[in-house]
């Protein structure tokens, strides 16, 4: 496996993460939000298959928030279904935005169940995907997600978080103490500073960053192996920006 200066991998501030995202979706970047969401969700699903074999972790509960992180979770659910898993979705605060409605329709067309009973589902599944809050989240955690975060904190099921563990500060980590520590973290595009405080299984996904943008922000991204959409960066350190 080739790493290409992997020890210099950069960890992003919230401001820089937003800047890169906006540049990717600018006229110059050429990406649409649904394109990036599709690639992110595929990366998440593929990373999960690397760690959680469907013979033991077939039933997966995807907990979705109202923003782009939740959209990544909806996409991941669809791919996990096609990979042979049995996903079901907890999505308590759905948006009427057309993009998200299409993602819901895609899941409905696969008969992926949507549930409103989180405590019950935590007893019936083997793994939880945390797709609640992404790197743009700020402020206090409001209902119903304050209770959702608490229930995830108390569950004994392994949790795989998308991009950042929900309720963590994007740069400082779990400083409030309200968040949980996932068993797995799938960073997208580049890891965020809070991942410096994380010691579990850590994958990087998002094999779509143009070389010019990578060079502009000196991201020092790894070379993804073969046709993989993810790479294991567990135990690797990076340089703060």
Features of the shown structure:
241 residues; two-stranded parallel sheet; Rossmann fold; disordered C terminus; disordered N terminus; NAD(P)H-hydrate epimerase; mitochondrion; eight-stranded mixed beta sheet; nucleotide-binding; alpha/beta; cytoplasm
Fold and architecture overview:
This protein has helices spanning about 15-25, 35-50, 70-80, 100-110, 120-125, 145-155, 210-215; strands spanning about 10, 60-65, 85-90, 115, 125-130, 160, 185-190, 200-205, 230, 240. It is an alpha/beta fold. It is about 35% helix and about 15% strand. The protein has a single domain (about 5-240), classed as YjeF N-terminal domain (Rossmann fold, 3-Layer(aba) Sandwich), CATH 3.40.50.10260.
CATH class categorisation: Alpha Beta
**What's the overall average pLDDT, rounded?**
93
By CATH, the architecture is named 3-Layer(aba) Sandwich
- Please give the share of residues in helix: 25-40%
Estimate what percentage of residues fall within beta strands: 15-25%
Sum up the overall morphology in one term.
globular
Q: What class, by secondary structure content?
A: alpha/beta
Report the radius of gyration as a whole number of Å. 17 Å
- Low-pLDDT windows of residues: 1-6, 237-241
Overall domain count? 1
Distance between the termini: 26 Å
CATH superfamily: YjeF N-terminal domain
Number of strands: 10
Most strands sheet: 8 strands, mixed
The strands making up the biggest β-sheet line up spatially as 4-3-2-5-6-7-8-9
Order of helices and strands: EHHEHEHEHEHEEEHEE
Number of helices: 7
**Which assembly state applies to the chains in this document?**
single chain
What fold name stands as the CATH topology?
Rossmann fold
GO molecular function: metal ion binding; NAD(P)HX epimerase activity; nucleotide binding
EC number: 5.1.99.6
Catalytic activity: (6R)-NADHX = (6S)-NADHX; (6R)-NADPHX = (6S)-NADPHX
Binding site for (6S)-NADPHX: 68-72, 134-140, 163
